[in-house]
Design a protein that fits this description.
It is a single chain. The protein has two domains: 256 residues, no CATH class; 99 residues, Beta Barrel (Elongation Factor Tu (Ef-tu), domain 3). By secondary structure, the chain is of the alpha+beta class. It contains eight helices and 27 strands.
């Protein structure tokens, strides 16, 4: 038996009614196959009733593992429900060879900082992918993803940060209630999962080498104060690119050096978090190393559309003769109708590129996905976990 995915969504006025409608649709799509894992996404005002949604999904799907999260917006099918109440359910039957393990990440304050526990200890090569839901109010995400890169090297980690936290509650859900974990993960093995990260940013200007810096601070680019080099680079751009820069200055850092050419997928893109005019240093949202290649980037709707379409086409090619069983999506709350001028942009693109397929996910306050084989936290991205049958 192969992998089967079912999904459902409902905008019913109560969590129980919405969960019933969504879970019934997912159950029908499974076609009698057992549910190994069910994910529940609860949105809008219904985030105050997560236990009701979980109880109903448990009754209808009887999953071996039940996890979920609250969210400010939901993705289901060809639609992005950026606002309003709703429940989305995603269910997977892993077939004869697949297995799934749900794990919890917990943090503890220690004298030198924070200790992280809960990353699975498994043999190298045993894990196909990890889906990660991260409560960043309690989880240092960058440090956590570095730990994943160390303990599960090469394993794609895909997920998101809840964009709506219930009043006086926690956003992560497991079993029949809220979880106290800082992160919830699902580790899959024995099945094939393709990750996709569309940062939607276009490189502009010349490549620049970091010649002095440490931590997240770049002091020099190409042997000169970083702020001076960036100012000169912006001045040399054409008028259209300078206009895009006004919406936010972005810097891409090459993840895997030593290639003859670097394209959009080779950079981790970050905004500039600060600058010191006296020293000429700039601060970026990622660690830097001397010798690393950097390049200015711009983000605009056309670039984001083209990049997502290109990434989807690559995944379609990578599937070969295999069938896509379903997908989980995590897209930024800075995309959607505000960025593209119309609703459902990413969901429609995913269905056009890989579908029709069962698709569920959430509009996130941060996305998680691999670049250059390492997991990173992102903003303004569309990230996807594509499950093959």
């Amino acid at each position: 038996m192969s992998v089967v995915v079912g999904s459902g969504f409902s905008a019913a006025p109560s969590a129980a009614a919405g969960a019933a409608d969504a879970a019934h649709d997912a159950h029908l799509a499974l076609g009698g196959a057992p549910c190994d894992v069910a994910l529940v996404f609860v949105g809008g005002d219904l985030v105050t009733e997560p236990a009701e949604a979980l109880r109903v999904v448990q009754e209808i799907l009887d999953p071996t593992e039940l996890v979920g999260t609250t969210a400010g917006g939901l993705i289901a099918g060809e639609q992005e429900h950026e606002q309003g109440d709703g429940v989305a359910v995603w269910a997977i039957s892993l077939g004869d060879e697949g297995r799934a393990e749900v794990f919890e990440l917990h943090t503890t304050e220690i004298e030198d900082g924070i200790a992280l526990s809960g990353i699975p200890a498994v043999e190298l090569g045993a894990t196909s992918a990890v889906i990660l839901l991260a409560d960043t109010a309690h989880l240092p995400l960058e440090a956590t993803l570095n730990a994943f890169a160390e303990h599960l090297p090469g394993v794609p980690v895909i997920g998101g940060v809840p964009s709506l936290v219930p009043p006086d509650g926690r956003p992560l859900l497991r079993g029949l209630g809220q979880s106290t974990a800082a992160g919830l993960g699902i580790r899959f093995e024995g099945i094939e999962v393709l990750p996709l990260v569309s940062q939607g940013a276009r490189p502009i200007g010349p490549e620049l080498t970091v010649t002095a810096g440490e931590g997240a601070v770049i002091r020099e680019l190409a042997g000169r104060p970083a702020i001076d080099v960036l100012r000169d680079t912006v001045d040399s751009l054409n008028e259209d690119d300078r206009e895009q820069i006004r919406h936010g200055l972005l810097l891409g850092l090459v993840v895997n050096p030593g290639q003859p050419d670097y394209g959009p997928g080779d950079f981790i893109v970050r905004g500039l978090a600060g600058a010191d005019p006296e020293s000429g240093a700039v601060v970026v949202g990622a660690p830097v190393t001397v010798g690393q290649v950097a390049r200015l980037h711009v983000r605009d709707p056309q670039t984001a559309t083209t990049d997502l379409d290109d990434e989807l086409a690559l995944r379609r090619t990578a599937t070969g003769s295999a069938r896509v069983a379903g997908a989980l999506a995590f897209t930024c709350n800075g995309r959607g109708s505000d960025m593209f001028g119309h609703a459902n942009h990413d969901a429609e693109a995913i269905q056009a590129g890989l579908g029709p397929l069962p698709l569920v996910g959430m509009i996130s306050a941060g996305e998680i996905g691999p670049v250059g084989g390492r997991p990173f936290a992102h903003g303004f991205t569309a990230t996807l976990a594509v499950f093959l049958a």
